[in-house]
Amino acid sequence: MSSAGRLAEPQVEAMFDRIASVYDLMNSVMTAGMHQRWRERAVDVADNPRKALDVATGPGDLAIALRDRGAEVVGVDFAEKMLEIARKKAPGIEFRQGNALALDFPDDEFDAATVGFGARNFDDLDRGLSEMARVVKPGGRVVVLEITTPQRPPLSFFFRLWFDSIVPLIGRVAGDPDAYEYLPNSVKRFPGPRDLAGQMVAAGMTDVRWILTAGGIIAIHHGTVQ
User: Fold this and answer.
1) Among 31, 140, 151, 201, whose CB has the most other CB atoms within 10 angstroms?
2) Which pTM does this prediction carry?
3) Does residue 81 register a pLDDT over 90?
4) Are 207 and 226 in contact (CB under 8 A)?
5) What was the pLDDT predicted at 3?
6) Which residues have a Cβ under 8 Å from the Cβ of 143 and sit 6 or more positions away?
């Protein structure tokens, strides 16, 4: 791993395959169980899609939340071990292996496309956002749920302590310190809310807005495809 914690795409895929078996537990520990509530908020702003694509679906929780609101859902991820877990959780959802930067779907296929805690792993964020916009019908929604860095103390201090010290320690206990060193660095590299909104506009979306929750640690962006 480089000093900046950046990994090439095949390394990221291999890392998520390695941590698939502990991913859900680690998410619950690191977010005090709040991550499912944040996914529900993301579904709220997806605008009740009839057919939805969940990109970087991981173990499938956001896809399941969309399904539970009545959507027909396809979940895509490049890590097969993650998809195996998703299929066991929700055998009625189609989960398929694929690359967010080259989605294997025609234009205008879905009413909404979502990504939860996966956009920061895109090797090319602009391309990933453009692909999500491409497969959504005009007037449909793209939703990005992601961790963001709070700017105001005391939460900013706690956030740095948590991600720079405690998360890597949890990773060592879980047996994969590299993966949980990568996580804080990927958050630090990810654009802030205003910059991400600008990239969504450049990818072909209008009316881009965002919600900050959990004291500014979580940002939920949504935009309408032109």
Assistant:
1) 140
2) 0.90
3) yes
4) no
5) 37
6) 42, 45, 46, 112, 113, 114, 115, 220, 221, 222
Looking at the predicted structure, is the pLDDT value of residue 2 above 70?
Answer: no
Residue ranges and CATH numbers for the domains of the chain are: 9-146+192-225 (3.40.50.150)
Q: What is the pLDDT of residue 130?
A: 98
Residue given tokens 């009625």 in the structure block: 92
The Cα 173–Cα 87 span in angstroms is: 27
Q: Six-digit token pair at 191?
A: 């654009």
pLDDT higher than threshold 60 for residue 110: yes
CB 114 within 8 A of CB 140: no
Band (pLDDT 50/70/90 cuts) for residue 152 is: confident
CA–CA distances in Å: residue 165 to residues 99, 158, 201: 31, 10, 35
Rounded CA-CA distance 200/208 in Å is 7
Rounded Cα distance, 46 and 224, in Å? 10
DSSP string, the chain: --TT----HHHHHHHHHHHHHHHHHHHHHHHTT-HHHHHHHHHHTTT--SEEEEET-TTSHHHHHHHHTT-EEEEEES-HHHHHHHHHH-TTSEEEE--TTS-SS-TT-EEEEEEES-GGG-SSHHHHHHHHHHTEEEEEEEEEEEE----STTHHHHHHHIIIIIHHHHHHHHT-HHHHHHHHHHHHHSPPHHHHHHHHHHTTEEEEEEEEEGGGTEEEEEEEE-
Do residues 137 and 51 touch, judged by C-beta distance below 8 A? no
